[in-house]
Design brief:
Elements lengths: L1 E5 L3 H14 L11 H7 L11 E10 L2 E11 H6 L4 E9 L3 H17 L4 E4 L11 E4 L14 H9 L3 E12 L6 H12 L3 E3 L11 H11 L11 H11 L8 E5 L5 E9 L2 H7 L7 H11 L2 E9 L8 H16 L3 E8 L3 H9 L3 E12 L1
Parallel strand pairs: 4-5, 11-12
Antiparallel strand pairs: 1-2, 2-3, 3-4, 5-13, 6-13, 7-12, 7-13, 8-9, 9-10, 10-11
Helix pairs in contact: 6-11, 7-8, 9-10
Length: 371
């Protein structure tokens, strides 16, 4: 007997959080989440996004065994800002069984419909900071942090439920240039002549004064990024607490203007996927050591975030940061750069990545369905 049950207690939530590692037990490219983050993500007392979202978590059980999971989200803040009326499904996992998949999706469809939504999209979490989309290309490639690693049947089954493509995201792999391209050297000099200054870091404590200015710039410039929800001050602080301990300051570049205001930034970090895999997503007792060790041994930089003030996008600030980042990458001996996910329609960024020889190696798809 198959039944769909709402997550009601800590035992249910534990089953929800740890189900994926059972489903992906023999999936060599799957990457565990950091479970300490998962317990925060799904806790309404610790995740501020619950303050402006309606949510529901559900488990599928068959003959008493947990066989699937799904989360439904209605992000009222995003819907209000974007004049939208859609719900979301996310964090969905199941074995290759259309019946289980159907019951889980139908459960969230009914929930969203009863909440007055006219469309369901997904996989998409609270915001674009969560893993998004089902993987549709690149199943044989390794996974990096904060990206989805679904099995091929997931995209097939969602289409069988009447969903169609809403948007694709692509991910690039770039072979690190042995030296900074000459054109970068020339263009990077232009902003300096107009009073813009590159700020680089060697210690994490040097980053703290820049946290809110950097994330404030993100709020100002990410308005066209699909699914983006502005950070509140509290969320900025939470975001910093989550990532600062694992960031390498050498791969954070900030540009300030003549008034010392942040006008551009880029954040990257050496890939830690191997360490997370060895730690099985658990920081303690020794997982954190494995993760830090993998960061030191990594040969790849993963780009995480970046922004340039809207009215300054064509004066060379991005090139100024790219020059500095490539210098740091070469000093560290990193052979590859991962772009993280890029909207399929972001032709400007895609063109810049492709100029450096970037090749698409993964594609993720967000689906939609009218309710």
């Amino acid at each position: 007997m198959l039944e769909i049950l709402e997550v009601k207690n800590k035992t249910d939530l534990k089953n929800f959080i740890y189900l994926p590692e059972k489903i992906h037990r023999n999936h060599k490219n799957w990457l565990h989440p950091l479970y300490s983050d998962e317990w925060i993500l799904f806790d309404p007392k610790k995740n501020k996004a619950f303050n402006y979202c309606d949510t529901i978590l559900a488990l599928a059980k068959k003959d008493g065994k947990v066989v699937g999971r799904i989360m439904g989200i209605i992000n009222h803040l995003y819907n209000e800002i974007n004049k939208d009326n859609s719900g979301r499904f996310c964090f969905m996992e199941t074995w290759d069984d259309q019946e289980i998949f159907h019951e889980l999706v139908s459960f969230v469809e009914d929930w969203a419909r009863n909440k007055g939504m006219n469309k369901l999209i997904g996989p998409f979490g609270f915001s674009d900071e969560d893993p998004q989309g089902f993987l549709v290309e690149g199943f044989d490639q390794p996974t990096v942090m904060i990206t989805n690693c679904s099995l091929p049947y997931m995209a097939t089954m969602i289409e069988d439920e009447g969903f169609s493509k809403k948007m694709d995201f692509v991910q690039y792999n770039i072979k690190t240039p042995e030296k900074v391209p000459a054109i970068y050297e020339r263009i990077a000099k232009r902003p300096e002549k107009n009073g813009y200054k590159l700020v680089e870091f060697t210690k994490r404590k040097e980053l703290k004064p820049f946290i809110r200015p950097v994330l404030g710039l993100t709020n100002d410039t990410y308005t066209e990024i699909f699914g983006y929800v502005p950070f509140s001050d509290e969320e900025m602080d939470d975001f910093a607490k989550r990532y600062l301990p694992i960031l390498d300051p050498r791969f954070i570049k900030v540009i300030v203007d003549s008034d010392s205001k942040v006008v551009a930034y880029v954040i990257g970090m050496p890939n830690i996927s191997d360490g997370i895999r060895k730690a099985k997503g658990r920081l303690f007792p020794f997982g954190f050591i494995k993760i830090l060790r993998s960061m030191k041994k990594s040969n790849q930089l993963d780009l995480l975030l970046g922004a340039v003030k809207d009215d300054l996008r064509n004066i060379g600030l991005d090139t100024m940061m790219a020059k500095a980042m490539l210098k740091s990458i070469n000093e560290r001996g990193l052979d590859f750069i991962d772009s993280h996910v890029v909207m399929e329609t972001n032709t400007k960024m895609r063109a810049e990545v492709e100029k450096l020889g970037g090749k698409v190696y993964k594609r993720y798809r967000i689906f939609q369905k009218d309710l």
